[in-house]
Amino acid sequence: MLTLRSFPLRNAAFFRRGNLPVLLGVAVGAAVLTGALLVGDSLRGSLKEKADRQLAGVTAAWIGPRLIRTEVAETIGSDTYPALLLQGSIESVPTAAGKLPKRIGTVTVVGVSSNGPSALPSESVTVSNRVANRLGVDNGDTIRIGVEKFSAVPRSSLLGKRGTDDTTQSITVKVKVLPRETYANDFALFPSPQAPLNVYVPLAILQDRLGIPGKCNAVLSTTTDVPTTNEKFAKSLGLADWGVRVVVPTKRDAYVSVESETLVLDGPTVAAVERVCRKLGLRAERTLVYLANEIAAGKEAIPYSIVCATNVAAPAPLGPLLPPGVSTLADDEIVLADWADSPLKGKKPGDTVSVTFFKPELEAGEQTETATFKLKGFVPLAVSTANPTPMPRTRLPANDPDLTPPFPGITDKLRIGDWNPPFTFDVKKVKPRDEKYWDVYRTTPKAYVTYAAGVKLFGSRFGTVTSMRVAPASEETPEQTAEKLKAAIRAELDPAASGFVLEDTHTRLATASKGGTDFGGLFLGFSFFLIGAALLLVGLLFRLNVERRAKQVGLLLATGYPMRTVRRMLLAEGLLIAGLGSAFGLVFAVVFARAMLAILVDLWPDPESVSFLRVHVSLLTLGIGFVSTVLMALLAIWLSLRGLAKVPAPALLRGETELPRLTEPSRLGRFALLGPSFCFVAGLGLLFAGPTQSNPDIRAMTFFSGGGFLLVAGLLLVRVVLKRLARDNTPARRVSALSARNAGRNMGRSLLTVSLLATATFLLVAVESFRRTPDSNFGSKDGGSGGFALIGESSVPVFQPPDSPAGLDDLEQGLERAYQNLPGDVPAAKRAKEGVDTLDGTTIVPLRLRGGDDASCLNLYQAGKPRILGVPDKLIDRGGFKFSDTLAESADEKKNPWLLLRKPQPDGAIPFLVEQNSAQWMLKIGVGDTLELPDEAGTNTTFRLVGTLVDCPFQSEIFIADEAFRKLYPRQEGYRVFLIDAHPEKREKLAAVLEAGFRANGMSVTPARDRVAAFQAVVGTYLTLFQVLGGFGLILGVLGLAVVLVRGVAERAGELALLRAVGYSSAALRELVAVETIFLLVLGLGVGVLAAAGSVLPQSAAELGGQLGRLVTVLAAVFLTGVLAATAATRFALRVPLVPALRAE
Amino acid sequence: MALVARDVRKDYPTRSGPLPVLTDVSLSLDRGDALAVTGPSGSGKSTLLHILGTLDAPTAGTVELDGVNPFALADRELAAFRNAKIGFVFQEHHLLPQCSVLENVLIPTLVTPNADPVKFEAFAKDLLDRVGLGHRLEHRPAELSGGERQRAAVARALIQKPVLLLADEPTGNLDRKNAAGIGELLLDLHKQENTILIVVTHSSELANILPKRMEMNDGKLVTAA
Fold this sequence. Notes:
Order of helices and strands of chain B: EEEHEHEHHHEHEHEE
Distance between the termini of chain B: 24 Å
Oligomer: heterodimer
Number of helices of chain A: 34
Shape of chain B: globular
Distance between the termini of chain A: 38 Å
Number of helices of chain B: 7
Shape of chain A: elongated
Strand content of chain A: 15-25%
Largest sheet of chain B: 6 strands, mixed
Strand order of the largest sheet of chain B: 5-6-7-3-8-9
Largest interface: A-B, 31 and 36 residues
Helix content of chain B: 25-40%
């Protein structure tokens, strides 16, 4: 039986023909809304899937700047494995003569042992499927792998080797290729947009080729308990893993020396040793030795001598290192060793002694410095000259070659002339007396200064101590003390402070896979029009439905139904339809999401990097989509019913659904054109102001706003025109004139239609103004590129900048090797020389790079730890590049915001610059905000954003001053990024030369413009998606227009019937209805397009290019849909029976 | 008196100012009274009917039904008042095509508070028997003739046993035979249910069977000649 509850169901079923279009409208809304949310789910799900896949079961990893023993990993547990993870390059070795090798610049060389993670190949050298495809190699082919050699000694220190041959290792091997669907193809520990390029080399082979047997630089774990594994990791580390050794120097056998493999002890280690010594009641002295190029006084000089800085007044056995009778030494005083053949022997206390030396950090080239001291006197080396090398423990403290830690290539050579040092070494300066000293005293210092003076001159970012000398405890031999120290120091060293922590890679990637951008929100925004149009259609169709049942509503009211009850019944019916429509739409939501992902992949600048995107459906999202759509549809229905409630029951019983308009159309005031004129002038003003804006985003916004004003002007003008038409009393001479007047008759509805069409069209076209290509001044110093047309990036650091003499030598050698097998008669050496000559007149600025997450919009992962670039003073002083917003205060800073990188922050934060889009979208911070990023040891450090760059080719990185970089990341040595300012004609050749010459470093040179264009292409992809979806929305909106039209025709059925009765032909009636619709359609599209044309003014036709075609297609489709809608409405009008329509009238 | 209208005035706003439709209409009727209101088109007959039926409010004057001024009630109470006290028969039957004849008659009862559906259903069947549609309970309006539809509408108007039964051109869409039948039916049922019956009509045949007749002329209600 019928009840109030079942009434809506009965109505929904009975009026199903009218309700079906409403249901379909809701379904479209649900499909689009839920589909957009599913795109977000899909991104997160796909990234999560990719993360799980790319980790190949590895849940935690440590990758260190130093090597540790493989036993460390092996003793942690069976789920933890030693590995070598290296950045490198790879090239094919063609078998046919004259065929050029193919090269890939950025590969990850993975060395795991046979008991390593099962997903990673460990039995033979294996390349990933992707690498094989790019190189064109197959099973059994030969490749050449280039990786960085390990060096215990910092490359940037005096004794570090920096040449290409010294820093890179080439390994030629035959390979296997991984099958396509193998996890190892995608193995990567970090969130990156690039598809990984992996080469697997058995650990033992890699260790052997790199000369590091038993060592690894990574620990991989598949543990489920990362904290416990970290505890075990910390326990299994030994002093050797810190590179620390505790020895009793044999020459004197009087004290214990704590030294480092790296020649310099780092700060945390020194602090640990000092704490231990304090606890054990031992005396310890910091000691810093350094090689002086020359110690001179007057005309006499001693070449290549060790200078020792320590507490020279320390009591035995650590000193004293002072002349007899002297008890103190000032920081500006020096003590010289008293040896028989010393050319300075005749100097008197108080004489000036100069010490010339290379500055301790040499990456930017050797820089010589001279310090002067007052001679304090001579310290004796031997008790008697007859026996200068006495037995241990009888030696004088200054006669101690062990003050200098051993260094292969120098301390182990029998003659100075045999040295093979990495710095400029003039063997001619070495005299026989120097060789004689070396023969007798070896590395015994020839001069002593205070520790403070030594730190000032020879201290570097790597440390200020070459050994901690510890006096043995009383009653103990040095050996006994050494044993005690070993255990105590190991216990004191904090693995975490030294960066020995396995990172929870699984959690990190899981966090990163939430995505840098909320794609659900983004696509929801893109689909705004479509959803809005669908809901508009739902409202219009439902209202149309209800209007057809107006008499029923009237009857219910007449029989005592409160309006509230009637409205509830109708809403309940709407709810039913909305529920069914939403449920139906959910099925298509999946289809919509799939289509969106397909379009995204297709439009993305590097489709391969997003090819992993798959549709993921979550029940929660389906639920949210369902409920949201139902609620929005109900809102649309409620809004459509609002007006009906005001219509009195008698009117409803007559079938009337609107209150009669009782007011005369207002007269056109004298100032009717004032509004449109004002908006028109304001719009033009903004369009003229646009080109004066230097920030491209502000410029785009200015043009967009200008277009917006033109749009408002156009719509106000349309209003005036419609009013004029409504008031026009001139007899219509043509049917089309009657149509135009009809458009003005229902002005509100017509204006709404035109406004909707014009606004949608405007937005669709005008967003083009945000589509960007590099500016015309991009190449200039103050443009986006900063005047650097090319950007070089190497996978293995280059330690000698390409424009330094040593770097040019490296380049020439590298080119000679690269050109060995080229066809033709020109010798490789000649070609190499010509290649090097290309660099004439070229400026190259090398930058240090700390690896991290790609913070650019190309990375779909959330970038937690962006890459960091160290900007040298040379670039900071030079300035250039385009800035958006900065914290600059002084005129100098405003002129050159790079200076802000050197400006100390009140809270000690590190100032940094970043590209504005990366700041806004990826890092989600503004100028003045701070970021926390770990330093080399993993301690969080605060960074403050002091400025944002525009159109910068570096979206993936943040910029900090080189000085701060060196302090935070002392072991991040060498340069990996190169800004290259070259003559336009040379650029292509220069790029080829640098790539060939530094191929061992995996150098890749790309035009800055291409890099920026790739980033801008992502924005372009989003804009295109917006336009595609907006276009569909507009088409749906036009269908809404058709509904309005049908409604209008229905209202005028009697009027049309009368026209037929008085002899209007069908064709004339068709014309009457169609022209009215097309008139509104043309007005809407026309105003929208004209206003939008202003917004896209700055873009040339070439820039608009392909977009223009698509936009024209969309607008043509909209127009066509409108015409079809008009035709349908006309047919409807002509179908109304003549007599009943007349009778109703 | 059960129905008292005093000095009822109704103006409609138009672009050229208020248009008076009813001017000082007064009327008093008691239960069992039956009145025919005739008059030319546009004289204000239907407007008067809508005001008496509380579908429209007077611009001035008062109406009382069973001692209640309905226009002093809130919307919700007014609807309940109309539901309980007033029955309508229109020129068009306004039967809901999605409901059976029986359901159509019961439509007003769905919003009656604390209604007893069984009692209402029995009464509806009784009414339909009385209007000659006892055998068409499950039929849809589309399956009925014009006269049958209007008889169903009469049954619907009486389902709440209203004090006031209003009929607006109830025979306007019917042929002479069916019109006579509906007129008789209205009068019979009005007597049986002891309601006040007011019929607005152009039909002199229908007007003549009612005991009282008044005429609307230029917005004024006068005793028919």
